[in-house]
Each structure stands twice: as C-alpha cells, then as structure tokens.
Write a structure and sequence with these properties.
The protein is 62% helix and 2% strand. The chain is mainly α and 1071 residues long. Among the domains are: 147 residues; 159 residues, no CATH class; 35 residues. The chain is elongated and about 160 Å long.
C-alpha cells in the first residue's frame, strides 16, 4: 500500500476524531476565543510535566493512532529534542497509548526505545485491558527482561516506600498481582512460568521490624497493600495455577481473611467479598467432579493423616457451609450414611422408614450382644453402619430420659404418707399391708429408712458411666484443644460432671446416714417396736434419737427436710440433678437436624440464643441504671419498719417494701416486666399519727391501710386526714412513679420489641439459606456416627469386647515392634471405605481395568476443567458484548455523503512501478486497505468521514503502488500546524494580535487542506486515465509518432481542462 493511500486514510481518520475537529472546525469568533482561553485554575495546565513540545504532541498522537512511519521518524530525529519517555496530561506515555490502539508494529518500536519504568507502566495497562498477546510481547522483550533483572536487586520493600505517585497503579501492585486481581489465567500462567509469585503478607499482629517500619511510615498504605495482596491471593485463577491443592489453599486463606475482617473493620466489606469469592471457587471445583471417586478424593485426601472425610471435617471446623452443602458432597455423605447394609432405607418413604425403625427397636439388645460376641459377622456390619449407630444411640438416649423421669417422679415409690402412729389404724389405709404402713411411717420419721439409691438410680449411674466413657474416648481421639473448642462437647461434659457430683453427694449422704443409724440402732429398733405395736416405746425412742443432747450426730436421723440445713448434701445433690435433667432433656434437640422439618427450627433456636445473649447486655445495663436510681430514691423508706394492726395483731412492715434493698429492688424491676408488681407497691406507707395504723389483707396477700381503702387512694395520693404527714413524700413518690413508668416504656416497648425484631431477623436469615444451613447441621450430626468406634450404645459400651482387647494388643504390638509398614499405613488401609470396595468388585465383575489415580492427578483434572469453564464464560461474555459471536475484523463497503470533502478515489488494480513498497509499511497499513474501483463510465464510490468503515480483508494487496514522498512532509506539516494552533489558542486570552494570527493560520490551513485534496483528487484522475491509456495501447495497433503525440496532447489538454473546471468549482463553493 502506498504512502498516498495511507495518508489519505489517516486524514479521513483525523477528520472523524474530536481532536481534528478542534483543530480545523473553529466555528464562530466567540467560540474560538472561549475555546482558546482556558481557565487559569485548570488542574492539568499548571503541571510542568505535561508542557509538551509540538514534536512530542505529534509523537504521542502518532503512537495513539498507530502510525509507524511518524513514530519512527520522530524517534530518528537527529537533534535529540524529542523526549521519548514524555507523557500527556494523564500521565500516559507513548507505549501506553499504542497499547490502546493495539498496533503491534508501533509497540515493538517503542519497547526498543523507552526506559523500563515506562515499559512496566504500559505492561500494567496492558494487563488491565486483558491484552494477552501484548503482555506476552512485552515480557519476552530483551529490554524488559534486562530491566526486570535490575529491578529485582532493589527488593520488595523499595516499592512500598516509593514516594513518586505518577502511576495509575499503586507502587505495590506487581504485574502478577494485577493479573490475579483481574482473574486472567493466561497472564497469570505467563508470570508463574517465569518464577514470579505473590508474597503473602505478614500476620496482622506481626511485630517484626519490617512491619513496624511500614506501620509507622504509613498505616493506611500498609492496610491497602495488604488488601491488594489478598485480592490477588484470593483470585481463583491464581489459586488454581499456583497451589497443588487449591481447596486446601482456599480454606486456609479464608481463615486468614476472617481474622483480618474482624481486626480491620474499615475494610470488612472488602474482605467479606473476598471470602465469598473463595467459597464460590471451592464450590465450583467440587461441582466439576464427575464421579464418586473424585468427590471421595476431594473430601478425604490431601491432609496426610490417612483419615477418611478429613477434608470434610476441616470444612465443618472452618464453617465452610456452602462447600459442605454442595450436592456432590451431600450425595457422597448420604451414600456413606446408609452404607451397603442399610442402603434400602434410602429408597423407602417416610412412613415405611418409621415402621421399619419401630420393628427394629426390639432387636437392638440382641444385635448388641451379637456384636460383642461376633463382631465380624453380618450383624456386626449392620451395627457398624452409621444410620444403625444413630438409631441405637438415639434409642439409648430416650431410655436415659425415661429413667430420669422415673427417678424424678419417684414412680417406684408408694404415694401413701403416714406421719404418726395413730394413722396406722386409720380406715383410710386399710388397703395397705402392715409392712407398707410401717415402712411409710419410718420414712416420715427417720431418715435412714429412705433409700437414696434405688434400682432406677443405679441404672442411671450405669448410663452416666457409659456416657462418660464415650466422652473420654472422644477426648483421647480428638485432643484436648479440639475438644474444648466445641461447645456441645463442653455442655455434655458439664452435664455429666453435675450428674457425677450429684451421685457422689448421694453416696456421701448415704454413708453418713448409715453411720448415724449404726450409732443409735434406731431403724432396726423402731421397726421391731412397730411390728410389736409398742407405739409408746416407739415414740419415746424417737424423742431420744432427736434429743438436742445427741446433736450433731442425730442430724442425719431427721427425716423432715424442714429441719435440714440449706446446704445439706442431699439438697445440693437434688439441685445438681435438677439442673442436669433440664439440660439433658434440652440436649435432645441435637437429634433434630436429622429431619428436614425440624432441622431449620433447631438452627433458628440456636441463632436466637445468640440474639438473647446480645440483648441481655443492653437489658442488664438498663436494668442496673433504673435499679440504682430507684434504690437511691427509696433507700431510707425501704429500711424503715412501721407498726400496723392486722386482725387485732401487731405486725411490722417496710415503708417501701418493693425497694427495701438492692436485691428486692432487682426482683421488683425484673418481675414488673411480667406484670407481677403493681403500681401501689411503689407508694410509701406512713406511720399513723399515733405511731401505728390499721390495715387489712387484700387479694394477693398485699397489706393496705384502711385509710387508703376508705379514701380510694390506691395511687398513692394523699388523704385529707394525713395531708401534713404524707406530703413529705410527695416528690419522692412522683419521681419514683415517673421513673417506674419510664422503665416500663424502655424495657417493654423498646427493648422487648427490639428482641422480637432480632429474633425475627435471625429466623428470616435461616429461612433464606434454609437448605444450606440444614445440610451443614445434618452433616455435622452424621460425622459423629461415621467415625470408627462407639459402635455399641450406652450401657452396652461398658462391656469389654474381644474386639477391643484385640485392638489394644495390636496397637501395643505396632508401637513396640519394628516393621516395614507403619501403624499409620495399617490404620489407613483398615479405614478403606466400602464404596471403593464395592467399585472394585463391580470392575472385577465387568472385567474393567482399575486405575489408581492419585489426589494430585484428580486436582489437576479439576483445575483444567475450571480453566476451560473460565474460557467458555469469557467467550460467552464477549459474544454478548459484541452482539455477534466470533466477529473479528469485519469489513464493510464505504458509502458517500454530501456533507464531507471528496476523499481519494481508489482504483481496482495497481500498475507496477519501479519503486516497491517497503515490507514494514505494508505490514503497518495492512488493516486499512480499500477496494479501489474505477473504469470508464462506472460510478465511483467516495469515502465519508462520519461513516468510515473497513473494507473486506478478502481483497489481496498489490505488490507495488504509486509512491509520493512529498505527502509525508505535507502531513507532518499539517500536524505541526495543528499543534501550534492549539498551543496558540491555549495562550491567547488577552492578545488580539495572536488571535489574528490564529485566524490567518486557520485560513492558510483551510486552503492548504483544500489544495491537498485537489492534488489527491487530480492524482487519482491521472492514475485512472493512465489505466485507460494502457488499455487503449494494448488493444489498438501502434500509430505513428505524430498521431500519438497529438493524442497525448489532447488528453493532457482534456485533463488540464478538467482540473481548471474543478478549481473553478472549488473557488465558487468557497465564495
């Protein structure tokens, strides 16, 4: 392609750009003056760095348009006045602008001449645009590699302390970090293959010298730098390509960012967004699993401990709810839950499952006995199935609750109460035998007759010991640190501790009672006297035992609890037993996640307990504030006791009973929320004129003065008879009433409704992610029964089994003996799941080849699938953005408009000339070839500045073209004049002479442009006529010289006549 065609295209492009219109289309004189005089306070015009010379402006403009010729000519200036590293007002260098135009030829030339800082800035810009080819071109260039090697010697900390902030990117942003933030896996792989990596920031609590220096230098910059680093580290592309175990890297990175989100509250939302991004990446990886083998590897391997489901347990410990609730993971867990022996339950309906469980319950004791004797038989396999373990342990827990209820309600004891010897012959108790009557009387009179440890209590003791043995095994297997971090385990251990303390106190009390009974021999003698019906001597014996002279030995002989001490061991035992019973029955909710209907309710209940805990902080503050205020107001009256006469009896009551102390004030305020405190309770009682007052007892056991009832002064208003005495407490009562009313408003109207709103919000949150929350809770429950051990339920687990003895002997042998196979490998092989065994059995039946695939191979598969998925998503996005998929370099025919100057006409063919086009110019102008059409009598199609479009790439370029070297100088002069014109316009606010020069330059440039177009038009006509002449010469015989000379003169005259005609038309149009 010739310079003639190339510059014609560039001129048309300049006309289409806004800068060209600013340089040529000036408009009215007022508009010209306004545009030529920028504000003195303009931001960018005051920067010395952007005061470019005309040559630099032409150089940057050519780089942005991809003009190789002008860029090369500017770089080859002999005087060296051009600064190749110059930037525009936005800080963009020539390479930056060339990347926007995506001209590879210009980019290659500029990389050879610019310094490393400019190249690095342009590289970051290319990464941000996603220009993969340009990024590869830059990083493989020798200049960039040499500068990169020099830059590595400065270290990473140099970028943090860099004070120059001229780049559009922070100084800590490296190319790999930027590529990772944009999640461009192709560019990330380029840098990873060049041994680039992202350094993980130090911990937020790190106190090393480097962290302390950065914190003291700029705390905000350090926080932003850490956030930028974690944005790159959390990139799915970077994690997939840089880590051998992306899922493990995701979990660990999420834990770090969770801590950062809690510490750096200012960037909490950003870190939470990164947490969600990492979680989605892990879910996408497991979603790409195509079979059970891959899912099993993801949830089991990669931890190095040889324990099945170790990865899943880590996910639960890290609260990776979406990962655990993923369908692939849940399907694998469901298969393991039912096992091969109970898999038929999975296909049964709910009612059939319930019917099977009811029929299965009576068989549990026999299955337990069979497992103890023959653990490796079919019943043993059934007992080891997780769903069977769940059923047996749930049944054991229900039996334990039934025993607790029986012990609490004393169902094994008789409800008959005989307190004296005279009641023995009472006709009411005629249905009882003499033994029952004697036993009932002894229980009511002597404490040793009451049996503390009944058969039900002994069964409970065995159950508690079995539960304690389970907890000890879990503590041994998981470790103390992991055990105490699970609050459910702490609750179980606390309940068992209370039960143990309760029964220890019972045993202690039983021992002291037996010791006292042996001292007096009271129970044996009393029983004989009652059988002999010697009631007189029986009563004398009771008086002797309970005589004060036998204290304190006879304390444990007293049967009535009204005579016991408040801290009696049996009372304390009952208190602990009662609290433990409440928690035991409440702990039954741990079974609810196994059912889809009850699971979300249990999760909502747990979330609401957290809301109540947060509410109690504010409630306690408000309660304490009013408690202190009201007690300070009523402290004197609460301590005073006044004399009152009730039914001719003298009693003493407090003047302000509701506020007689801090404890009573607290009780009054607390129970007033539930309407248990009346407004009359806050009034102050006054002593009568004589020092005492008459009173009566009304409903609820309240005492009220008769004067208040007679005068209906239930609201504490003074009566006429005692106006002088009761007026002294008017202010106290009024202020107290206002404070009490304000307390009710704040507590009941504000705080209680706030608590209700918090609970409703928590319930709605659970319902939003109901399926995820329930599946996560169900998986936590299932994992408790999928581990090895704890097969037998309580109390069968207390029976030593041959299997337990064998495992103990094997463990000791493996620890002491030296063998090639370690105990860990043996344990890992023993834990091989039935799924793998079943798969191997099917492969053997079908004669399929079984290939052992390692965990790393499976992870590589998943990463490749993820990268392909990213490519498909990228292509779909580009297709939607472009409107038509895979439409690249589409070329359209050019049409003519009437409001633009005539463009250069193009011929259909080229005539070879002696001067060939240069190869690099052909490459640079390949994208702007036009289909040239001409001929005698044919209609020519002209180019339009507003509708310029590329011509079809199917037209092959001709090898040689017409070259006019003067056009380069004309175009360069045109651009220089344009730049000078803009420069003059920017500095001609108050100089009319310069404005006139601008007008003159404008006219000169307009005329120059028109002349240039005329020349181009004439040259096109000449080229067409030359083509016609060649055709004529090839088709007609060779005439004589005179005839040919006449024809050529005629043609020249015709062409000159056409030129004069066109010039006259242009002059007329100008006028």
């Amino acid at each position: 392609m010739s310079n003639f065609e190339r510059h014609s295209y560039l001129l048309a492009e300049m006309e289409d750009t806004e800068d060209y219109h600013l340089a040529v289309d000036y408009g009215s004189a007022d508009h010209k003056r306004a545009s030529a005089m920028p504000s003195q306070g303009s931001l960018f015009t005051n920067f010395e760095e952007v005061q470019l010379t005309d040559e630099e402006r032409v150089y940057l403009n050519a780089a942005s348009m991809g003009d190789v010729g002008i860029v090369r000519q500017s770089l080859e200036e002999p005087d060296g006045a051009l600064n190749v590293n110059c930037v525009d007002y936005m800080g963009r260098n020539a390479l930056h602008l060339a990347i926007d135009s995506e001209k590879i030829g210009v980019i290659e030339i500029l990389i050879d001449n610019l310094n490393f800082n400019c190249i690095e800035e342009a590289l970051l810009h290319a990464i941000s645009k996603g220009a993969t080819k340009i990024v590869k071109l830059i990083i493989e260039h020798p200049n960039f590699m040499a500068g990169e090697d020099r830059f590595k010697s400065f270290g990473v900390t140099e970028a943090f302390f860099r004070t120059e902030e001229k780049s559009q990117f922070p100084p800590d942003i490296t190319p790999l970090i930027l590529a990772a933030q944009y999640n461009n896996h192709e560019i990330v792989q380029m840098f990873l293959s060049r041994n680039h990596k992202i350094e993980k920031p130090h911990s937020i609590s790190c106190t090393c010298t480097d962290c302390a220096t950065k914190q003291n230098y700029d705390a905000l910059k350090r926080s932003r730098s850490r956030l930028n680093a974690y944005r790159a580290l959390a990139s799915p592309a970077y994690m997939a390509l840089s880590s051998p175990d992306p899922i493990m890297a995701t979990f660990e990175l999420r834990q770090e960012m969770m801590k950062l989100a809690e510490v750096e509250k200012e960037f909490k939302n950003e870190y939470l967004a990164l947490l969600e991004q990492c979680m989605n990446f892990a879910c996408e990886l497991i979603d790409l699993c195509r079979g059970t083998q891959e899912v099993e590897a993801v949830v089991s391997e990669g931890t190095g401990c040889g324990e099945p489901l170790a990865r899943l347990k880590m996910a639960i410990r890290y609260q990776e709810k979406k990962f655990v609730a993923h369908p692939n993971c849940q399907q694998h867990m469901t298969t393991l839950w039912y096992g091969s022996e109970m898999s038929f339950l999975q296909s049964l309906s709910l009612w059939k499952q319930l019917a099977f469980i009811l029929l299965f319950l009576p068989c549990i004791p026999f299955l337990c006995v069979a497992y103890i004797i023959f653990p490796n038989t079919k019943p043993g396999e059934v007992m080891r199935c997780p769903v069977t373990k769940f059923i047996t342990h749930a049944t054991s827990h229900i039996c334990f609750l039934i025993l607790l209820a029986a012990a609490t309600f004393r169902l094994t004891e008789s409800g008959v109460t005989i307190t004296t010897t005279t009641d023995i012959h009472n006709p009411t108790f005629e249905s009882l035998t003499k033994e029952e009557k004697i036993q009932s009387l002894l229980k009511e009179t002597l404490r040793p007759a009451n049996t503390l440890l009944t058969h039900v209590q002994l069964c409970i003791v065995f159950w508690i010991l079995g539960l304690l043995w389970i907890e000890c095994k879990q503590l041994y297997s998981t470790g103390l640190k992991a055990y105490v971090t699970v609050y459910q385990k702490l609750i179980d251990f606390s309940v068992l501790s209370m039960y143990l303390a309760s029964y220890v106190l019972r045993f202690f009390t039983e021992y002291r009672i037996a010791q006292a009974d042996r001292c007096f021999n009271g129970t044996h003698v009393a029983r004989e006297l009652l059988w002999q019906e010697n009631y007189t001597y029986f009563n004398w014996k009771l008086d002797e035992i309970k005589s004060p002279k036998n204290a304190p030995i006879n304390y444990f002989m007293e049967a009535s609890r009204f005579h016991w001490k408040p801290n009696d061991p049996e009372i304390v035992s009952d208190v602990l037993f009662a609290i433990a019973n409440v928690i035991s029955f409440a702990r039954t909710t741990y079974l609810m996640p196994a059912f889809e209907v009850l699971g979300p309710l249990q999760i909502s209940l747990g979330r609401m307990i957290g809301d109540i805990t947060r509410f109690m902080v504010l409630f306690t503050l408000v309660l304490f504030a009013f408690m202190v205020g009201l007690h300070n107001l009523y402290w004197y009256y609460g301590a005073q006791r006044i004399k009152m006469v009730l039914n001719d009896k003298t009693i003493y009551v407090h003047a302000a009973e509701a506020f007689q102390g801090l404890r009573q004030t607290f009780y009054s305020l607390f129970w007033s929320m539930f309407g248990q405190v009346s407004i009359t309770d806050i009034t102050v009682r006054h002593p009568g004129p004589t020092g005492e007052r008459s009173c009566v007892q009304i409903d609820g056991g309240k005492i009220m003065c008769t004067e208040e009832i007679r005068n209906e002064s239930v609201y504490g208003g003074p009566t006429p008879e005692s106006v002088n005495m009761e007026r002294s407490t008017d202010i106290v009562e009024q202020v107290g009433m206002y404070l009490f009313a304000l307390y009710h408003v704040v507590i009941i109207i504000v705080l209680i409704n706030m608590l209700i709103a918090m609970m409703s919000h928590s319930f709605e949150d659970i319902q939003t992610d109901c399926d995820v929350e329930w599946k996560f809770a169900r998986t936590k429950l299932w994992l408790n029964y999928m581990d090895e051990g704890s097969t037998l339920p309580v109390p069968f687990n207390m029976i030593p089994t041959p299997k337990s003895l064998f495992y103990a002997w094997k463990f000791c042998k493996d620890l002491l003996a030296i063998s090639d196979v370690s105990w860990l490998e043996y344990h890992k092989n023993k834990k091989q799941t039935f799924i793998k065994k079943r798969r191997e059995r099917v492969c053997k039946t079908l004669d399929l080849k079984v290939e052992d695939t390692s965990y790393s191979d499976i992870m590589q598969r998943l990463v490749k699938r993820y990268l392909f998925k990213m490519e498909r998503a990228k292509d779909e996005k580009e297709s939607v953005k472009d409107g038509v998929p895979n439409l690249r370099n589409e070329d359209v025919e050019i049409v003519e408009t009437n409001d633009t100057p005539p463009p250069v006409p193009e011929a259909p063919s080229r005539i070879p000339y002696a001067t060939p086009i240069h190869e690099e110019e052909e490459d640079d102008t390949q994208s702007i070839h036009k289909n040239l059409r001409s001929g005698i009598g044919s209609k020519r199609k002209l180019c339009s500045r507003s509708n310029m479009r590329r011509v079809s790439s199917s037209v092959a370029p001709s090898p040689t073209t017409l070259v006019i070297p003067q056009l380069d100088a004309i175009q360069r002069s045109q651009k220089l004049l344009d730049v000078r014109l803009q420069h003059l316009q920017a500095n001609s606010k108050e100089n009319n002479r310069i404005i006139d020069d601008i007008e003159f330059l404008r006219r000169v440039m307009t005329e120059n442009q028109k002349a240039l177009f005329n020349i181009i038009h004439a040259l096109g006509n000449m080229q067409g006529e030359i083509v016609d002449l060649v055709k004529c010469l090839s088709s007609t015989p060779v005439p004589d010289k005179n005839h040919s000379h006449m024809n050529s003169s005629n043609s020249v005259s015709k062409s000159s006549g056409k030129k004069r005609t066109s010039q006259q038309d242009d002059e007329e149009s100008e006028v």
